[in-house]
Automatic annotation (TrEMBL), chains A, B:
Annotated organism of origin: Steatornis caripensis (Oilbird)
Keyword list, A-Z: Kinase, NAD, NADP, Transferase
PANTHER family: NAD KINASE 2, MITOCHONDRIAL, PTHR13158
Classification of source organism: Eukaryota, Metazoa, Chordata, Craniata, Vertebrata
The protein's name in its UniProt record: NAD(+) kinase
MF annotations from Gene Ontology: NAD+ kinase activity
InterPro entries per the UniProt record, alphabetical: ATP-NAD_kinase_N (IPR017438), ATP-NAD_kinase_PpnK-typ_C (IPR017437), NAD/diacylglycerol_kinase_sf (IPR016064), NADK (IPR002504), NADK2_mit (IPR012355)
Biological process annotations from GO: NAD+ metabolic process; NADP+ biosynthetic process
KW Metal-binding (keyword) present: no
Domain of life assignment: Eukaryota
GO cellular component, one term: mitochondrion
Family of the protein in this entry: Belongs to the NAD kinase family.
Length: 367, 367
């Protein structure tokens, strides 16, 4: 890492801080005679979740997403402690101060000085021809090429591909969002795998272009099907409205200022165009993109829609209860919370919706 | 393809149309006793370009980008014929009607009923530690896993990595844009290659998440360095201002309407908010994103900037003569015209600018 120019000393320090913070949480729990099983990412599974009365994630928002990804019981509380304040905003975690005084959080829980918060999540049904409902974990680390090859060849020869057109309910619930888009740049993308001896990992030596338009058809709330071409489709929850969706849709001061200048000119408006007004309008617009994690509604946004002779989008974003997508993609995927992905190619149809049974139970401590 | 549900008959038909259109162009040229070498993508190289007095691309805009990518002589005309009207907008090609009446175009050229058009292009310098100036062709098709493995291992063992910090001028000129961003989702992304016997191609069986924020520092026109985190940085030419850059930056009616509604409320404006005004403002704003291919200036835009405690962006987009970027990325690349990519990881510094010597010579026929 140091040879690459990375800040190895910095990484080591953050790891030290994280480890110390984890110990603090574990000690606080054991001091209250609470039985604690401390597991790392790769040991965390549904059996561990079943054993636990509650799950605490110690890391950043990404770790919280991982923790939530194995919890399907709406009465199993999942609590996040941000042990990595420099890297993570901690939107999904308890306020920062409990990181160093976790007993305070425990006391509030004992005294009932909190309320339950149910974060709504998205479920996915997949149907159609040639679909593959096998999830791929994008965070899998450091398996050797050989181990992975064997695993995948076994999967394929067990013929996971289904010709049954009954909708499969996929074994995931999106806490932030589902993103649908093309993953590779070229129809015949070739990847050669180079075994890096120092890392014991494989990295493809080809970089894939990030820009390949996704072609699909979309129907919102059982409305008419519309052909679209874009850089992808994002469907989020209230929780996810603060995440990637926010970055896709937010507007910059600079753009609002230009829009208001043009409007003033065209509308012959007597409008004092000061930075205060521009800032207010920008803030209001951006705030309108956010909503409560507990609202059972989804927000869809089309990223960089391509509008030309063939394709159009009547609405670039909006709220909905149900979104159906038919893939016309060559090599696309549905990515859940940036961590799990499913093939989503020509012939596949996804139905995306919220079911309140899938909500994730968390806590909001009184302040 | 048919088993996947793809429209095989449709693909075959488009191929037939394309082949017929290519024959028309070649015949028209040979009828004028012009010597023609017809080459496919994989046979097209700098030797062929040197042999030719002019280069004609027969395909869509993508083929034109490929044709231009091997031309570095500002006096070697490159002309595009759109043989694939259903799939390509043909922005870079001659107007559609010449596809079926190419002799008409030839006559105009003979009679001087045209003007030369020089499309400005972007050049790239790469310097810093551990850089790898080896370009990767993202359109490489159908090499076997074995051939590619061998090729890349040979490259690596020849130690292409340079510790010299002198800037390397990369052997590419961007006709549309340079895009900088992270390519893989996970630090230890693993890719297992599955040899598909029917396709004779390799497709990674892992899909890579499309969302991994890119971390870099940017200096515009030798201004102060600014740390940024975003979904990537796009720097385009006038030609490229109609392409991906346009899709990144254009604003939707829907968004303009909401912004004007908010402005009206905040500014207590007496403004009749009708769809006509909204449409005018939207069109004006979007048109301001476009500029002439012949202008020697670049337009940079930051895609989905992440603004929080650590990162900010003073300007999300703008014109510039020079953009410098220091990578703080783990596994990023610079992608030129969606077709060629270079590693761009922590330690690398890119300088991006237009030099009028790099312009591409094309023609504008009189109408």
């Amino acid at each position: 890492l140091a040879l690459k120019g990375s800040n190895y000393a910095g990484l080591l320090e953050r790891h030290r801080i994280h480890t110390k913070n984890v110990e603090h949480v574990v000690d606080s729990l054991r001091n209250e005679r609470i039985e604690v099983r401390l597991v790392k990412r790769r040991e965390y599974n549904e059996e561990t979740v079943r054993w636990a009365d509650a799950v605490i994630s110690a890391g950043g928002d990404g770790t919280m997403l991982l923790a939530a990804s194995k919890v399907f019981d709406k009465f199993k509380p999942v609590i996040g402690v941000n042990t990595d304040p420099e890297r993570s905003e901690g939107h999904l975690c308890l306020p920062m101060r409990y990181t160093h005084s976790f007993p305070e959080a425990l006391q509030k829980l004992y005294r009932g000085e909190f309320r339950w918060q149910w974060r709504q999540r998205i479920r996915l049904y997949l149907e159609g021809t040639g679909i593959n409902p096998t999830p791929v974990d994008l965070h899998e680390q450091q398996l050797s090429q050989e181990q992975h090859s064997r695993a995948h060849i076994n999967e394929r020869f067990q013929d996971q591909r289904s010709d049954i057109s009954d909708p499969h309910l996929l074994p995931v619930r999106a806490l932030n969002e589902v993103f649908i888009g093309e993953s590779l740049s070229s129809r015949y993308a070739v990847c050669s795998v180079l075994f890096r001896e120092n890392f014991k990992s494989c990295k493809p030596s080809f970089k894939f272009s990030l820009h390949r338009a996704s072609y699909y058809e979309i129907s919102v709330d059982d409305g008419p099907w519309e052909k679209q071409k874009s850089s992808g489709l994002n469907v989020c929850t209230g929780t996810g409205s603060k995440a990637w969706s926010y970055n896709i849709n937010k507007v910059a001061n600079q753009a609002v200022e230009e829009i208001l200048k043009i409007a003033k000119k065209h509308g012959s408006l007597n409008m004092p165009l000061n930075m205060e007004l521009v800032q207010k309008v920008t803030n209001d617009y951006n705030e309108s993109l956010l909503y409560s994690p507990e609202e059972p509604k989804m927000f869809f946004s089309i990223r960089e829609p391509i509008v030309n002779r063939v394709f159009s989008s009547s609405r670039q974003r909006g709220f909905s209860s149900k979104v159906c997508v038919r893939s016309r993609c060559w090599d696309a995927c549905m990515v859940v919370d940036g961590g799990t992905s499913f093939e989503f190619n020509d012939g596949a149809i996804a139905s995306i919706m919220i079911n309140t049974e899938d909500a994730l139970c968390t806590v909001l401590l009184e302040e």
